[in-house]
Amino acid sequence: MKIGIIGAGRIGRVHAQNISVYLPELEIKTIADPFMSDELKAFAKRLGIPNCVEDADAILRDKEIEAVLICSSTDTHSKYIIQAARAGKHIFCEKPIDYDLNRVREAIQAAVDAGVKLQIGFCRRFDHNHRAVYDLVRSGRVGNPQMVKISSRDPSPPPVEYVKISGGIFYDMMIHDFDMARFLMSSEVVEVYAQGSVLIDPAIGEAGDVDTAMVTLKFENGALGYIDNSRQAVYGYDQRVEVFGSAGCAQNENDLPNTASLHAAEGTFCEPTYEIMFERYTFAFVNEIRAFAEAVLGDKETPVTGMDGLYPVQMAAAATKSLKEGRPVKISEVG
Amino acid sequence: MKIGIIGAGRIGRVHAQNISVYLPELEIKTIADPFMSDELKAFAKRLGIPNCVEDADAILRDKEIEAVLICSSTDTHSKYIIQAARAGKHIFCEKPIDYDLNRVREAIQAAVDAGVKLQIGFCRRFDHNHRAVYDLVRSGRVGNPQMVKISSRDPSPPPVEYVKISGGIFYDMMIHDFDMARFLMSSEVVEVYAQGSVLIDPAIGEAGDVDTAMVTLKFENGALGYIDNSRQAVYGYDQRVEVFGSAGCAQNENDLPNTASLHAAEGTFCEPTYEIMFERYTFAFVNEIRAFAEAVLGDKETPVTGMDGLYPVQMAAAATKSLKEGRPVKISEVG
Amino acid sequence: MKIGIIGAGRIGRVHAQNISVYLPELEIKTIADPFMSDELKAFAKRLGIPNCVEDADAILRDKEIEAVLICSSTDTHSKYIIQAARAGKHIFCEKPIDYDLNRVREAIQAAVDAGVKLQIGFCRRFDHNHRAVYDLVRSGRVGNPQMVKISSRDPSPPPVEYVKISGGIFYDMMIHDFDMARFLMSSEVVEVYAQGSVLIDPAIGEAGDVDTAMVTLKFENGALGYIDNSRQAVYGYDQRVEVFGSAGCAQNENDLPNTASLHAAEGTFCEPTYEIMFERYTFAFVNEIRAFAEAVLGDKETPVTGMDGLYPVQMAAAATKSLKEGRPVKISEVG
Amino acid sequence: MKIGIIGAGRIGRVHAQNISVYLPELEIKTIADPFMSDELKAFAKRLGIPNCVEDADAILRDKEIEAVLICSSTDTHSKYIIQAARAGKHIFCEKPIDYDLNRVREAIQAAVDAGVKLQIGFCRRFDHNHRAVYDLVRSGRVGNPQMVKISSRDPSPPPVEYVKISGGIFYDMMIHDFDMARFLMSSEVVEVYAQGSVLIDPAIGEAGDVDTAMVTLKFENGALGYIDNSRQAVYGYDQRVEVFGSAGCAQNENDLPNTASLHAAEGTFCEPTYEIMFERYTFAFVNEIRAFAEAVLGDKETPVTGMDGLYPVQMAAAATKSLKEGRPVKISEVG
Fold first, then answer.
1. Is the peptide bond before D157 cis (omega within 30 degrees of 0)?
2. What CA–CA distances, in Å, run from A184 to A114, A223, A250, C256, D183?
3. pTM, full prediction
4. Smallest Cα distance from B259 to chain D, Å
5. Please, what are the domains in chain A?
6. ipTM score
7. Cross-chain CB nearest to A272 (options C233, C235, C268)
8. CB-based burial of residue B246 (10 Å sphere; 0-12 exposed, 13-18 middle, 19+ buried)?
9. Helical segments of chain A, H only
10. pLDDT confidence of D191, banded at 50, 70, 90?
């Protein structure tokens, strides 16, 4: 199956490389990016990608291309989803679809109307550690899930300039965890309560955001949920989930770069965890594109549907409102 | 130093045994319990305790006895504290002092007025795992604490008859965690938000309580806190704490009965954790009485003061109110 | 059952204390030690032991005393075993019975002739971690055992004066591991090959011993074994065993004083393991005396028989010879 | 730098893929394999390798090609090393160079005479877990190394037909561990003692080999070493090393596919370790070729020299002799 990639930034290139090595069933025909460079052309050549263009239209108009990966900036996601859907192409789109709930719904509808597959890039669902917890829950070994707990902390805060346009910690960072909570529990969230503080960098507060947040969730089925985020875990990515249920508790630990330990007079020492997202989630990126290819080629539902792209944005909206108003907010309040 | 023990139930006997083996600086002169039995007399004889009586007055009136351990039922705690204080005896009292905030304050005041030491039995402060996290925080290696997370789950729910008189999950079970949160963070909680569900036994719900609860905390210094409780972790006591700060994250894991693992074709297997509180917290009970002895004999402040007995009861009151009203509740609202 | 304790050094007192707290079925009537002191008398009084004497004969002649614990110096073990057996008393004796194989056999025979129980103090068989591996092997979950590996390292070397009279590292230290190897594999060793070096303290070499040793074992059933010893593990007691078989691998890890960890920018840190044998093996000492009491009171075979006391001494003799001659030595060569 | 790959079996293809994705500084010009197929041609095309030929001469004669990867069968290694050296090409050669010590020396000499780099494919030196232990040792945090212990167990035995031509367990399997022992200790082995048994498959014994082996090592500097191998660890690859020294103990644990655990009433469960070598050592293969490229491009010594290829073969010869003769064998005895 021939595909096109719209957007050749960091994530677009990661997908291109992974496809070239691990996914022989896909052939990248064209990669499009408005910021063309010799270096990008060399990258494309090395991976055997025949066309390297500035304008995404070259992909959207190409009858041979059956599927597109939308890896451009967030503000263009919904536009390209709608255009690709109308051109009859299956769509993998990086998260989030949009910050505006109506734009999200419009994009989803376009894919539905066109009868094309749509998968959203919530890559953590495909991470070996998180997937293993999910599999344990699905296998029934946890019994009836009663609580979900998620810790998700970044090694260091983004530049304040980025924070300002990021939509805030709930849209930018916790959105992954909102998705993870739904994914692990297979139940919808009906209410959120958000706490937040500025404990790391006052400039983040001045930009109108918080850098430390805790959110509790109520699920439709009575189960309870908890998420914490910090913009700065000095020991590296801290990514852990736990599902507690009537028959047991499934949890995972941080990935460490190696299993070595030193036992010395002062105690036991191990290396810190990963600092770089693309190292931490190396195979999650491969696995999500593989799953997309399988869904398209096997004509199955994608494992992260358009609606899966909508719910976390609703939760982010509710958390933002909750933090502002200092009270629990129902999902139904945010429309 | 000669001491008396009021109440010879399970916990009173544990203290008696521990003192006899591990704390040669203390000599138990009298043990009092209204439910006298030959078996209790044999127990006392075996430990070399010369007097075994029904009436606590024998202890309170005995000039030789310098300190008492109040291990009777909760509804008698404040009464005995006041009487012992007036009799000039130092006091170790099991938690909680009382469910009524005014009774708590009265008891504390009596000890202050009499100039006697008062220590409350929040034994988890003396647990090797929790103390080790505390020590890491105190050492500064965590930096400025920003979040505290506590999971505290029991192996199985108490009888519903007990639940009915327990004061509810926040007074009966989470009170330990409210104390732990303050202890680990060295800051006071100003607001709590409680969620709860009946997911384990409908009879608990019929008794007006929940069996699964999550509470988030706001501290005076802006730090955030989280506690979860379940009445039933089928894998045994689940007791973990985590303090996250600007320089690192200190956490502990459940105690396992041994370090053995089996690696087989189906995977790796380890034994479940403890089922019995007195096994899980064996040495915590020894350590808290040792600390009490040191405070009295060395004329130092006790490590868990009367006020440390008050705050968690306030937090329990606020959590109860929050759950009922579905909104965050300030500590100042509960008086 | 009334018992007597011969020898009130460190280990004799540990047994006395444990019996007083944990083993109500035993009553210590007399404790005997040639080095009498006020401090020892106070110790006995505190534990409610009525008689504290210098001469072990007071125990051996006492008709009321049914069992003795021999906790005196090694050179007196076989003598007291023989005397106690002739006096019709059941015997718990600290390891080793003797360094001389004939003396060992003589003592065992005396117990057999008298029809009394004899248990040797290989306490590690009762350690929670080692016992858990043993239980996994016995349960069949390891399948047919093919290899056993034992690491046993002390926190620091004993004084050189002690090394000189210790019989050497194989008799003094590895004897525990020789017992453990037989225990875990339920098969007899037929050949040993020993390597040794002086890497820690040249004075140990000058005293004719080594401080670092590796021994490989061949078992009757074709299985292979390995043991290493070091006199100095700066990180504390290092006590690990592993049994590998056709269906899996059972292993244990060092006991740590707590489960806390600190995750910081430099990496993860945990506390070092135990430095003091009596902390590391706290409950092993309780469990072995409980097992002895059960064997005597229930008229069952003791879990560590006289013959279990003989084999490790043979293995130590063979290892000593192997190291000296630089070749594998058959157990049958040492008589 | 343009390179050629001789041999397009499993390992040759792994190197080709890794170079194409991860090592942009290398360009594969030609891949040669006597067993040509359409499938191999498609593989080459996909990776952008322009030439796919049957005869390695096409590589050896190509002036543009500066370095070769010899991934053909072991019996051709020394021949191709000599030919490539004479053609002035830098050489990466899979292990072992040859089973015959003279052939090994001849090949090494050819590379020396031609002034070309020679690196041997002991990939485990580049594994994240083993490298981390090595780094800890090199950093001095272990102090003076006194013992090295290596466990290396395969998930399942190779076909007996392969065992017959493999040279035996010491040449085929333990050779990696002989290399690892030298690597970790930075000292040469002077004597080995080998034990072996047939415990897994009698057919392996009939083929003249053992399936379970333990070897102890003496190093020049007095340190001691230990290696065990099993052809069948039902729980997957078991690859652990430990270096014990005067200042501490560095060790690693098996890689697990994920960090998830399930805590249930029966105990804690984790997934088994890897079953497939290429998954277990994914990045070790990348890292060793990267190191080779750095050595050639930076004109530095290769991290695994020709002599590093010789010593493990000597150790295998000594172990084979030791097992046969039932006695320790000096390396100097095998020439």
1. no
2. 30, 12, 10, 33, 44
3. 0.95
4. 12
5. 2-116 (3.40.50.720), 125-281+309-334 (3.30.360.10)
6. 0.94
7. C268
8. middle
9. 10-22, 38-46, 57-60, 77-86, 101-114, 128-138, 160-165, 169-172, 175-185, 202-206, 277-280, 282-297, 306-325
10. very high
Inspect the interface and report whether the beta carbons of A264 and D255 lie closer than 8 Å.
Answer: no
Give the pLDDT band (50/70/90) at residue C47: confident
Q: Is B146 on the interface with C (CB under 8 A)?
A: no
Q: Check B267 against D264: CB less than 8 A apart.
A: no
Q: For residues A47 and D46, give the distance between their C-alpha atoms in angstroms, rounded to a whole number.
A: 9
CB within 8 Å: D214 and C200:
no
> At a CB cut-off of 8 Å and minimum separation 6, what does A141 contact?
A247, A248, A250, D262, D264
Tens place of pLDDT per residue across chain A (335 aa):
999 999 999 999 999 989 987 888 899 999 999 999 999 998 898 788 999 999 999 999 999 999 999 999 999 999 999 999 999 999 999 999 999 999 999 999 999 999 999 999 999 999 999 999 999 999 999 999 999 999 999 999 999 999 999 899 999 999 999 999 999 999 999 999 999 999 999 999 999 999 999 999 999 999 999 999 999 999 999 999 999 999 999 999 999 999 999 999 999 999 999 888 888 888 899 999 999 999 999 999 999 999 999 999 999 999 999 999 999 999 999 98
Alpha-carbon gap, residue C331 to D15, rounded angstroms: 51
* Alpha carbon separation from A211 to A196, A233, C164 (Å, rounded): 7, 11, 64
Mark yes or no for CB contact C271/A268 under 8 Å.
yes
- Token output for B117: 């030491």
* Residue C255 C-alpha, separation from nearest chain A C-alpha, in angstroms: 12
Q: Which residue has the higher pLDDT, A140 or B282?
A: A140
Q: How many Cα atoms occupy the beta-carbon half-sphere of C250 within 13 Å?
A: 27
Cβ of residue A294 closer than 8 Å to a chain D Cβ: no
Q: Closest CB to A46: pick one of D24, D133, D264.
A: D24
Alpha carbon A216 to its chain's center: 20
Q: How far apart are CA A153 and CA A275, in angstroms?
A: 11
Rounded CA-CA distance A257/D127 in Å is 11
**Shortest distance, CA C179 to any CA of chain B (angstroms):** 19
Mutate to test the interface with D, among A259, A263, A280, A281 (most CBs of D within 10 A): A259
Read off the pLDDT of residues C25-36 as tens digits, 9 standing for 90 and up. Answer: 899 999 999 999
Q: Which of D129, D254, D264 sits opposite A248 (nearest CB)?
A: D264
In degrees and rounded to multiples of 5, residue D107 shows phi and psi of: -65, -45
Q: Quick check: D319 contacting C, CB < 8 Å?
A: no
Q: What is the pLDDT of residue A45?
A: 85
C319/C330 Cα distance (integer angstroms): 9
